[in-house]
TrEMBL record:
Belongs to the GcvT family. The lineage of its organism: Bacteria, Pseudomonadati, Pseudomonadota, Alphaproteobacteria, Sphingomonadales. Keywords: Aminotransferase, Transferase. The keyword DNA-binding does not apply. Pfam families: GCV_T, GCV_T_C. This is aminomethyltransferase. Residues 303-379 form the Aminomethyltransferase C-terminal domain. Residues 26-278 form the GCVT N-terminal domain. GO terms for molecular function: aminomethyltransferase activity. It is an enzyme of class 2 (transferase). Its EC number is 2.1.2.10. It catalyses: N(6)-[(R)-S(8)-aminomethyldihydrolipoyl]-L-lysyl-[protein] + (6S)-5,6,7,8-tetrahydrofolate = N(6)-[(R)-dihydrolipoyl]-L-lysyl-[protein] + (6R)-5,10-methylene-5,6,7,8-tetrahydrofolate + NH4(+). PANTHER family: AMINOMETHYLTRANSFERASE (PTHR43757), AMINOMETHYLTRANSFERASE, MITOCHONDRIAL (PTHR43757:SF2). The keyword Transferase applies.
Length: 388
């Protein structure tokens, strides 16, 4: 799915995915006037008031997103840290209670099977889990099968499929959340913890997928409607659909699995090496380590880059990227950036053509349009970080 998109082609493509499951808030979305489409195996709201309006509201106020299609997984048992350090390239042993970090599942050849968030609840505060993980909705069952295959019997994996997952994003998200759950005011970016609202247990992290300040809230599915109603009763909050979520994450330069990230591409080429700490690089021992080390030493063959596009015509996923007559890459995400008032894109290009300010051309419906490699994020992140 692309960003500037009430386009019939995009809607039709999403609606082809059948059969579809219902989110816990399915009836709630429809009552709010949502346009529902198929995505990642679920009926999901693409917009309520229109993608452009919802994008702008989130940038200025606070938007509530339903991301219950994502996979929530708890891990416990003897040796859980050691076991997960085989599956993930990140430092799990060094992950402190009440903290989370970005990571990936890699295959044996170092290709990216999924990207994910991994957290350590304090004293098993979240349903007894020693480690809590959120994976992408479209890949969650494949992810769990892969992990079952590679985890020892002593480690227990719990698919938390009775939990809903909501995201509150935007510059007024902190104020809105503190109104309902005062303790969240103390959280900073990538901190997390157990909270309570009206007798309901919540697991909340200060994180998200828009580049804005915000929270992700895991809660029992049966409590999701009441909590969504309470949030949307606040002046700062409106429900926001999948369309604006995509345009916001593109402006933030955040990759989407299955599009910008696949098993064919690498961590280093994707510019995600920050997720692999110094100790893990030195010690290795994780699946896919060989390719990571080789590309750290020699460089990747291709690289994920941001693309600033001249004119008003957006370049969509699959558009080919050229230097003269030479095919050097492909667009993996693209669309109109409402905040910038211009089209932008993300793509993979061969390493010699990945430097900032490199002039490229993109073939859009048989017409070459000029593009330039540009830094990401396209719109600066506004996370609430801890004071230095």
């Amino acid at each position: 799915m692309t960003a500037h998109s009430d386009s019939n082609d995009d809607i039709a493509m999403l609606e082809e995915a059948l059969p579809l499951e219902a989110l816990p808030l399915d009836a709630w979305h429809r009552a709010q006037g949502a346009r529902m489409v198929g995505f990642a195996g679920y009926h999901m709201p693409i917009h309520y008031d229109g993608i452009m309006a919802e994008h702008s509201w989130t940038r200025e106020h606070a938007g509530l997103f339903d991301v219950s299609h994502m996979g929530q997984i708890g891990f416990s048992g003897e040796g859980v840290d050691e076991a997960l350090e085989i599956l993930l390239p990140s430092d799990i042993k060094g992950l402190k209670p009440g903290r989370q970090r970005y990571s990936m599942l890699l295959d044996q050849d170092g290709g990216i099977l999924d990207d994910l968030m991994v957290a350590r609840p304090a004293n098993g505060a979240f349903d007894g889990a020693a480690i809590y993980m959120v994976v992408n909705g479209a890949t969650k069952y494949d992810d769990m099968a892969w992990m079952i295959e590679h985890l020892p019997d002593e480690v227990v994996m719990n698919h938390m499929d009775e939990q809903a997952l909501l995201a509150l994003q935007g510059p007024e998200a902190g104020e809105a959340m503190a109104t309902l759950v005062p303790g969240t005011a103390d959280l900073t970016f990538m901190q997390c913890g157990a909270f309570e609202w009206d007798g309901v247990a919540l697991w909340i992290s200060r994180s998200g997928y828009t580049g804005e300040d915000g929270f992700e809230i895991s809660l029992p599915a049966e409590a999701a409607e009441a909590f969504a109603d309470a949030l949307c009763a606040l002046r700062q909050v409106k429900p926001i659909g999948l369309g604006a979520r995509d345009s916001l994450r593109l402006e933030a330069g955040l990759p989407l699995y299955g599009h910008d990230l696949t098993s064919a591409v690498s961590t280093i080429g994707a510019d995600l090496g920050f997720a692999i700490g110094k100790r893990r690089r030195a010690e290795g021992g994780f699946i896919g380590h060989g390719r990571v080390m080789k590309e750290l030493a020699d460089g990747p063959g291709t690289k994920r880059v941001g693309l600033k596009i001249q004119g008003r015509l957006p370049a969509r996923e699959g558009a080919q990227i050229f230097v003269g007559d030479n095919l050097v890459g492909e667009v993996t995400s693209g669309g109109f950036a409402p905040t910038l008032g211009a089209p932008i894109a993300m793509g993979w290009v061969s390493l010699p053509h990945s430097a900032l300010d490199t002039a490229l051309e993109i073939d859009v419906r048989g017409k070459r349009i000029a593009a330039t490699v540009t830094p990401m994020p396209f719109v600066p992140h506004r996370y609430r970080r801890a004071a230095a």
